[in-house]
């Protein structure tokens, strides 16, 4: 096979596109196989889909290793090229529950108008299938690669990544210079370099337990917490505006309290999910929450009973921001442009494994096919041609990446 590096750029791009277009049918079949395997997390069972990935690596004669932090929660890492780890492209094997509202069986993929429907086609088995077809191309052009390219299929992304990406980076299994995470949607028109932080706060209301027949003999903690949550809607966060990220948000995702219908609850709690900006931190956020708590307390100042609103941090995941001048970002843009795709730099409210990678010294950004609005939705779909184009752009990136 003629080395692509000796071809003129236009001819090189044509050869890349021709290769992936010719593999479209195979990509579709491979994706259908992956979707037919239920890897709903929990419990995960990623090993079922990992067998398909493993078979591809074996067929392509790509060296790979298997890692499991827990039995059945499989991570696979294939290696192509020589030298130091340069780039990792990681997709996840697990999916969210299918839920209701599907027009077709979520685990029996259907193709209509060049779109495949099924649970996980977008998040994240479509991109995974595309990277496996990419692996075939890279293996054929292995001598032209500037370093070692890793194709990873990881576990547990939908439930925190403790058994997946977090495990792989903490054990220094992945130590590449760069990473591309195809888990943001964006139809190849976005490169995500910033993510909000996540702060889960347990808001606990403490009142006075009493008898349901004599409510005046207690202070209902549910009433106290409810008033707090109502006032929380108008909270004034202290922060500086960010060019890529929207204003901070807060939502009560869980609430519990009370032991019996005829007992005035003395304690209840809600878990607040706060998405915050780089200009904020847990200290400033707690200060803002306490101001709302003091306003709430004024409504109960005539109560003869002591009461309190307390806050405990259950999770703190710091915001992420990658320097937009990093060479990887410019390379993604220039490579995409050769295929008439012009991705813009964005930030996002959600979170990806880019955080874990960047925290461990691997510069990671999000770049992916697919419609963001169908993530975790019934009738999830992916445009098959977009997957082909995604593979082509990745191939160009891998060939032109520099150490």
Order of helices and strands: HHHEEEEEHEHEEEEHEEEHEEHEHEEH
Helix content: 25-40%
Second rung of CATH, namely the architecture of the largest domain = 3-Layer(aba) Sandwich
Shape label: elongated
What is the end-to-end distance?
A: 25 Å
- Give the mean pLDDT: 96
CATH class of the largest domain: Alpha Beta
Tell me the radius of gyration.
Answer: 25 Å
Key terms for this structure?
403 residues; Aminopeptidase; 4-stranded antiparallel sheet; elongated
Tell me about this structure.
The protein has two domains: 4-195 and 320-400, 3-Layer(aba) Sandwich (Aminopeptidase), CATH 3.40.630; 197-317, 2-Layer Sandwich (Alpha-Beta Plaits), CATH 3.30.70.360. With 403 residues, it is α+β, with helices and mostly antiparallel strands. The protein has helices spanning 9-22, 24-35, 47-59, 121-140, 165-170, 221-232, 282-298, 327-337, 354-359, 384-400; strands at 64-68, 74-80, 85-92, 110-112, 115-117, 148-154, 178-181, 190-195, 197-206, 210-211, 249-257, 263-264, 267-276, 308-317, 320-321, 344-348, 363-367, 381-383. It starts with 8 loop residues before the first helix and ends with a helix.
């Amino acid at each position: 096979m003629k080395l692509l590096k000796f071809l003129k750029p236009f001819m090189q791009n044509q050869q890349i596109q021709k290769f992936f277009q010719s593999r479209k049918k195979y990509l579709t079949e491979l994706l259908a196989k992956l979707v037919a395997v239920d890897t709903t997390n929990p419990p995960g069972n990623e090993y079922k889909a990992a067998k398909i990935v493993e078979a591809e690596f074996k067929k392509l004669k790509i060296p790979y290793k298997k890692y499991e932090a827990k039995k059945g929660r499989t991570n696979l890492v294939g290696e192509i090229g020589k030298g130091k780890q340069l780039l990792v492209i990681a997709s996840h094997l697990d999916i969210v529950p299918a839920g209701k509202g599907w027009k077709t069986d979520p685990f029996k993929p259907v193709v209509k108008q060049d779109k495949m429907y099924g649970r996980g086609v977008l998040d994240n088995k479509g991109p995974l299938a595309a990277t496996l077809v990419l692996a075939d191309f890279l293996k054929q052009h292995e001598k032209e690669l500037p370093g070692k390219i890793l194709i990873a299929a990881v576990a547990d992304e939908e439930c925190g990544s403790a058994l997946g990406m977090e495990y792989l980076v903490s054990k220094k299994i992945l130590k590449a210079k760069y990473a591309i995470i195809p888990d943001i949607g964006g139809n190849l028109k976005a490169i995500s370099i910033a993510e909000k932080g996540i702060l889960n706060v347990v808001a606990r209301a403490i009142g006075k337990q009493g008898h349901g027949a004599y409510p005046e003999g207690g202070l209902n903690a549910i009433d106290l917490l409810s008033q707090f949550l109502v006032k929380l809607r108008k909270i004034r966060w202290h922060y500086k505006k960010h060019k890529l990220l929207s204003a901070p948000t807060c939502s009560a995702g869980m609430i519990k309290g009370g032991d019996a219908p005829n007992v005035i609850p003395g304690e209840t709690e809600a878990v607040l999910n706060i998405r915050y900006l780089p200009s904020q931190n847990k200290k400033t956020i707690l200060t803002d929450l306490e101001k709302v708590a003091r306003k709430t307390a004024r409504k109960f100042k005539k109560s003869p009973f002591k009461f309190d609103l307390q806050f405990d941090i259950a999770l703190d995941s710091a915001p992420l921001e990658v320097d937009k001048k990093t060479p990887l970002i410019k390379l993604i843009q220039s490579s995409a442009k050769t295929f008439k795709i012009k991705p813009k730099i964005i930030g996002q409210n959600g979170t990806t494994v880019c955080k874990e990678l960047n925290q461990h010294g691997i510069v990671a950004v999000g770049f992916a096919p697919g419609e963001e609005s169908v993530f975790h939705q019934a009738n999830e779909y992916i445009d098959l041609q977009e997957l082909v184009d995604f593979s082509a752009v990745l191939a160009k990136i891998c060939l032109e990446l520099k150490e």
